[in-house]
Amino acid sequence: MRKLFIAMFLLVAGLIVSVFDDANAEGREDSVPVMQAAHFEAEDLDGNAISLRDYEGKNILLIFFTTWCEVCQQELPMLSDHYESLQDKGIEVLAVNMATSERKDTDIEPFHQGLQMPIVIDREGRIAKSYGVQGIPTTYAIDEQHQIVKPFYGPLDKSQVLKAFE
C-alpha cells in the first residue's frame, strides 16, 4: 500500500511540474538563448573559399542540408526562388551541404543546378558539429552581430524566415 501511495504521489508531482513548466513556457516559444554563431571556412562548389566572416554585419540564414533529404529537395528551391527578395530585405542565404552524410560525392552536382544561393561543402562534418546539427534540414537565423536568433528544425517558409529577423 505504501508503494502505491509513493507511486501516486510521484505521478501527481510530475504532472504538476509538467503543467507548471508548460504554463511558464507560454508566450516564450520564440525566445531562444542568445548564442554566438560558430565561424568557419569552407569551399563552395567551384573551390572558392567562403567564410562566415565574409558576411560580417549581415543577417544570415544558414541552412544545413543533404541532397537525399526530401524536405531539403523542396525547401532549397523555394528559398532559392526568394533569394533576391530575401537579400533585398537584408538577409543573406548560405547553404551548407553535409558531405559526410551524402550517399555519393557526386550527388551535389545535379542537386545544386538552378539554386541561386551559395553552397559550401562541409567535407569533414566540422561545420555541422560546431553547430550541433542533429537532423536535417537544420537552419539558423543569424543576426548582424552573428548571434543565433532562431533555430529551425525541419521545413520552413519565407514568412518564418522574415519573422525571425523582425
UniProtKB/TrEMBL annotation:
SUPFAM superfamilies referenced in this protein's UniProt entry, alphabetically: Thioredoxin-like
A Pfam match: AhpC-TSA
Stored PANTHER family: PROTEIN DIPZ, THIOL:DISULFIDE INTERCHANGE PROTEIN DSBE
Family annotation (Gene3D superfamilies): Glutaredoxin
Segments forming domain Thioredoxin: 31-166
Keyword field contains Transmembrane helix: no
Protein name, UniProt field: TlpA family protein disulfide reductase
Signal peptide span: 1-25
GO function term, MF aspect, one: oxidoreductase activity
Organism: Salicibibacter kimchii
Keywords, comma-separated and alphabetical: Disulfide bond, Signal
